[in-house]
Structures are given as C-alpha cells and as structure tokens.
Protein: Amino acid permease-associated region
Amino acid sequence: MTEVVNAGHPPTPDTSSAGAPAKLRGRLGVPAIVLMVVAASAPLSTIGGNVPIAMALGNTTGIPVAFIVAGVIFGLFAASFVAMSKYVTDAGAFYAYIRESLGRAAGTGAAVLALPAYMATLIAVSAYDGVILNELITRFGGPDIPWWLLTGLVLAAVAWLGYRDIDLSAKVLGVFLVSEVAILMVVDLVIVVRGGEHGLTGDSFTPQGIAGGFGIALLYALWGFVGVEATAVFRDEAKDPDRTVPRATYWAVGIVAVFYAFTSWALVEGNGGHDAIQLATDDPDNFMVNTAGKYLGMVGRDLNTVLWAVSVFACALAFHNIASRYAFVLGQSGVFSTKIGKVHERHGSPSNASLAITVASFVVMGICAALQLDPVLQIFGPGGGLGILALALLWLLTTISVVIFFVRRGNSTGKVVLASFATLALAAALVLVVSNLTLVVGGTPTLAAIFGVMPLVFFAVGMLLSRRSTAELAPISSVG
Structure:
C-alpha cells in the first residue's frame, strides 16, 4: 500500500516538515507503471476500433507502418521529457515541465488543459463501455439494459478503485491487460500458423500497401498511443523514480508500437490482404471479433467480445487515475480548493481528487443521458476527439518546454536537437489532427470548429487561474 512520507517527521496526511504539501508515494516498479499506461491505450479497443476505421477511411493496408511511425514520434517525445524528468520532479508531470520553462501561468494552463482532456476521454470510453456491455448481455440472452445505467456502474467501479491506493489499480489493470493481450496474441499466432487468408505477405509495408490515406491511418495510430505518455504522472508513487520512470516510458512505447504493428499486420493477412479494407469498410464494429470467430470459432469470438468490454473498463480506470493526479496537483498548488490536494492517510492516494473526478464524470454523463445523446456518435466520438486534440497540444507544449529548458542550461546540444525533432514531429501530428477534426470528432464542421477552440479556452482559463496559486506552497517543480 502507498504511504505519505514527510522528511524528518512521522507520516501525516497533508504536510511535510518543510511546510510543503505531502506527496503520493508508493512502490510501483517498471512493470506496474507499464501496465498502468499501456492499459490506458486499451490494446483490444485500439485493435478492434482504430485499426478497421483507419483501414476503411484511409483505404490502406499500411496501418502497421502507421503504428511504427507513431512509435518513432512517441519515442522522440518520450526521450525528450524523460531527459527533463531528471531535473524536474513532480506528480504533475507535464504541468511541471511547462511551468519550469514557460512560467507559472503557462504551466497552470497546461494542467487545466490536461484535466478536461483526460476527463473527456474517460467519459467517452465509459459511455462506449456501456454500449459494449449491453450488447454482451443481450447476446447471451439477457435483458436490454440502457447504456447509461451500465455506464454508471462502470463509473462506480472505477471510482471505488481510483479512491484506493495505486497498487490496487495496478494489480487490476495488470490482470485485465494480460487477458486482452493474450487473446490478441492467440489470434495473431493462429493467423500466422495457418498462413493467413492467402498466404503471408509483406504487402502492408510496400508503397502500394501504404498508398491511400496514410495520414488518416497515422492519425488513428497516434490515437492508439494516448495514455502511454502518462508514466511521469506516477513519479511520486514509483520506486526509485529516476530509474523507474524512464525505463517504464521506453518499455511502454516500445511494447505498444511493436505489438500494434504486428497485430494489425496479422489482421490484414488474416482477412486477405487488400480484401481486408472492404471487410473493415462493410462492418468496422465487428471486424476484430469476426476475425477472432474465423480463426478461433464462436468461443473465441465471444471471449474477444467479453475482453473488449474489460479493455475499455481498464482504459476508463487508467484515465481516471491520470485525471485524479492532475486535479491533485492543482489542488496542492491552490488553483483548486486545497481539499482536493489532500492525500488519504491510509491509502496514500489522491482520494479527494478522485472523488472530484467521479462527481464531475457522473454529472456530465447524467446530462448526456438526459439529453438522450447517442453514446457512440455523440459522446464517444466527440469526447475522444476533444481528448486527442487537447493532448496533442499538450504534447507539443511539453517538447517546446524541453527545448527551452536545455537551451537555457547550455552544454546540452544533443538534448536540444532531440527535443527539436520531437517538437517538429508533434507539430505535424497536431496539424494532422486539426486538418481532420470533423472526422475526429464525428460531426459537422461547426461542431468541429467549436471543439477546435475548446482546448485553447481551457489553456487560457488555466492561465487566468494561475493567479490563485498560493505563495506559501512549495514550488511545483524541483530543479537540480
């Protein structure tokens, strides 16, 4: 279990001997952090959702290459913020990095930007899980239950786990993640052993395979990496964070890139190469489960569906934990009520921040249900789109901050060059998201324009709220 540690004094829930706010501290090792953040990327959901949509809209079988390119982009990004994490330490992660380089106002703006980004994604995937659970229940002869009721149960379970110590969440996510990866690997291996639909090829990696809307494929590949960047958020709860966080980050990016590239290639091969595009276009929702049924039978198909619901739940829990830690740091800095920045004495968790995220999630979901919004088209699509747009902006601000930080320090040419490449890559990714915003949020150009402005509004509001930061609190970052 995590505990609150204060230098020079017995543990107390809120303050240290120096008057600084108490920090979250636990025993998370590299595997636990990797499981936490890879679970946020929801492997089964990414493969079952993003891959067929990317193939259908992009008219390309080059999705494995898109995942590799996305992995390179995230690798550059990871190397950049990991380099800075040696000098700036805080549970607020990117909040701290941006604040150190661009000032308190920009740092607070980034934290306020990150919070609704992760919350929007949390609400989006929770609504989607309600739909999946209802389909699962009716498939096995159960009653037709409203999606919002099932989503409420998902949020309640997430709230219960999120309130407690991080080790419990890590264990739950670990079991879920291993299960969903296992079913995907079984499907992959059976496809490879059988030689696919028409024999194994490397067409996905040829110019002809990549041709088409590769930009769309790359966009959905980048979307599949969301959550992997959050390793730094758990710094205060990691064992030996200077070693654990960098290793966990590189492992997470590498595992996601290789696994997604291999699995998407196997799905293409298992559905006849170029023929897979038409199958994905005809029925994108069931592309993955139909493939599982083709190679593993009905038992495999049903198991895949069950684990899909589990995957989305794990994703919701991971995003709840990330959002809670951003709210926690904003509470500790005085931007939000300081009560939100309190640490649970027994669990060592950001319990009040977790409760705040839970209440906000139920309120938003209640409004969506009252308005009778479609859970997929009007909640999942727009919510996920808003999340990826806001996070793309946050990633870009982070790498810009890394460049500025090392330029100021001097004698860090290599790190400046590395962060500069990451900045260019993420700037291109942000342009890609913005240029396809109508597709990303799923709606009219007017809705896309509104959603396009929202991250800027969040950032601006955060900059204004920075004036509320209490002077008596210790600095958010600790620079060495």
